[in-house]
Write a structure and sequence with these properties.
Oligomer: heterodimer
CATH class of chain B: Alpha Beta
Strand order of the largest sheet of chain B: 5-6-7-3-8
Largest interface: A-B, 37 and 36 residues
CATH superfamily of chain A: P-loop containing nucleotide triphosphate hydrolases
Shape of chain A: globular
CATH topology of chain A: Rossmann fold
Number of strands of chain A: 12
Helix content of chain B: 25-40%
Number of domains of chain B: 1
CATH superfamily of chain B: P-loop containing nucleotide triphosphate hydrolases
Helix content of chain A: 25-40%
Distance between the termini of chain A: 29 Å
Number of helices of chain A: 9
Structural class of chain B: alpha/beta
Distance between the termini of chain B: 21 Å
Radius of gyration of chain A: 20 Å
Number of strands of chain B: 8
Structural class of chain A: alpha/beta
Number of helices of chain B: 6
């Protein structure tokens, strides 16, 4: 059974456009994803595709003008706003994107200790700092004194010491050097092996492939493909969606060829498939409506012509 | 024609150095990678080379003379976080035209939509903002570009898109580029040589 299941999730924001006139922008559309116990799922997509919002929706920390539709099920029971508030920080934790999420007036050491749930907090914190090559001196620093890479390691160590059931990591890798990334891969795997369900939100395909079991590809607010890691190989022949293929081919270690254009903004989405304006194989049918999800070769794809 | 760092050292306090005795140079038309562990001072070195920060000791020389203190700076820096590099109270159009007026062809190649020009920075995502920061830095008087983790936050398609434009421009204008990055694959793909900051 899945630890965390997300069914038909949609998120929209209401804002004032002019005077008292309001407008609603839908940023996530009919998203489905599930994570099993001991599994690592990577959600890969470009910036601005709504990946972080997904994490914030699971934790219930979206701003007040957001409205959420759809169902999130945790451990067989629906996650209501109240339940989210009880569970976040203990059973469901997030590794946030930046140090801005830390308390700016609290020293790093004691801050990490607050997230330890079992055993001696100080010992656990010292152990994890040693593992991530953070010098004892870091304990006495304030968040603003950390370099980018150090901050990332501190945030990661907070999630690891919490031993939560669901760990959601929002962009855990940018700015880290190869050794620390290696260490991060190992820790996520350890977390999963200890029974946590891990969701990695990242744009770094290479990291996702090394760490995760399956990859959910995100484009313009929805998942266009869910594929096992092994499908990402060669020229991407096994991949299902044209966007995923383009992502794979654009990597510097592959062909480094970009496709034209940019991802549509949330309030200017085309009516049909969001990728159609950039897709080589798009037909008139693609412009009519968003393709339904279909299962294909052990994965999911939202494309009329996927084979 | 080159950008040189001569015996540069930097520290925030007296007698506590982030790095010392750094010698390096980038010639025009050359693409050089700069790597090193996090916290080693790669970004600081980038800031010193582009005149945002004064070194505690040593000299920066551009074509043999000191960096100019006014006018369009010939060494342009593109930061890792575009959100921090744009004025939140300006519209994108003003931000883009701060140094020069890029033509429509460049904007199109970078995937910048016309419609974005009327927006405020907080209405665009990091990837979208970064395209503006790159366009802004590629003015005709730019001789050297320092790309500090320029595409680290971006997906692979946007990364390839931006680099294709930058490399093309560099070749046309004989620009030198210093690429600060952790991504070995990217560096191997585009750089002619790679410097490790802990070994210079």
């Amino acid at each position: 059974m899945s630890t965390l299941e997300i069914h038909d999730l949609s998120i929209s924001f209401t804002k004032y456009s002019k005077g008292l006139r309001q407008e609603t922008t839908q940023v996530i559309h009919n998203l489905n994803v599930s994570i099993n116990k001991g599994e690592i799922v990577a959600v890969v997509g470009s910036s601005g595709s709504g990946k972080s919002l997904l994490a914030h929706a699971i934790l219930g920390i979206l701003p007040g003008n957001a409205s959420v539709k759809g169902r999130i099920v945790y451990d067989g029971q629906e996650l209501t706003e109240q339940r989210k508030a009880e569970l976040r920080g203990t059973e469901i934790v997030i590794v946030p994107q930046s140090v801005k999420f830390l308390d700016p007036l609290m020293k790093i050491g004691s801050q990490v200790q607050t997230s330890v749930r079992k055993g001696n907090a100080a010992v656990a914190q010292k152990k994890i700092f040693e593992k991530y090559k953070l010098k004892p001196l870091v304990e006495k620093l304030f968040p603003f004194q950390l370099s980018g890479g150090m901050a990332r390691r501190v945030l990661l160590s907070m999630a690891v010491v919490s031993e939560a059931n669901v760990v959601i990591a929002d962009e855990p890798t940018p700015g880290l050097d190869a050794d620390v990334i290696k260490e991060a891969e190992i820790s996520f795997r350890e977390l999963a092996d200890n029974g946590s369900a891990v969701m990695l939100i990242t744009h770094d395909i290479e990291f996702a492939l090394k760490t995760a079991d399956k990859i959910a590809v995100f484009y313009a607010g929805t998942t266009v493909e869910v594929a096992p890691v092994s499908d990402f190989s060669g020229k991407g022949e096994n991949l299902r969606h044209p966007y995923t293929k383009a992502l794979w081919r654009a990597l510097p270690q592959n062909e480094f060829i970009p496709i034209k254009g940019s991802q549509p903004l949330a309030n200017h989405l085309p009516k049909g498939c969001p990728f159609a304006p950039r897709c080589e194989n798009a037909t008139l049918d693609c412009l009519k409506e968003m393709p339904e999800e279909k299962m294909l070769r052990g994965g999911m794809v939202r494309c009329l012509y996927a084979t | 024609m080159q950008l040189e760092a001569i015996d540069i050292g930097f520290g925030y306090k007296k007698n506590s150095w982030i790095f010392r005795h750094v010698h390096m140079s980038v010639s025009r038309g050359e693409i050089v990678g700069l790597v090193g562990p996090s916290g080693a001072g790669k970004t600081t070195l980038g800031k010193i080379l582009s005149g945002y920060e004064k070194p505690s000791e040593g000299l920066v020389r551009l074509n043999g003379s000191p960096l100019p203190s006014k006018g369009y700076h010939p060494v342009q820096l593109v930061f890792q976080h575009p959100e921090k590099a744009v004025n939140p109270k300006w519209r994108m159009k003003e931000i883009l035209h701060e140094g020069w007026n890029p033509d429509d062809e460049l904007l199109e190649r970078l995937g910048i939509e016309k419609d974005w020009l009327r927006r405020w920075p907080n209405e665009l995502s990091g990837g979208e903002l970064q395209r503006f920061c790159v366009a802004r830095a590629l003015g005709p008087s730019t001789q050297f570009l320092i790309a500090d983790e320029m595409t680290t936050m971006l997906d692979s398609i946007t990364q390839a898109q931006i680099w294709q434009v930058v490399l093309d421009m560099a070749q046309k204008r004989n620009m030198g580029i210093l690429v600060i990055s952790h991504e070995a694959h990217l560096l191997n793909r585009i750089c002619s040589r790679i410097i490790d900051i802990s070994q210079v």
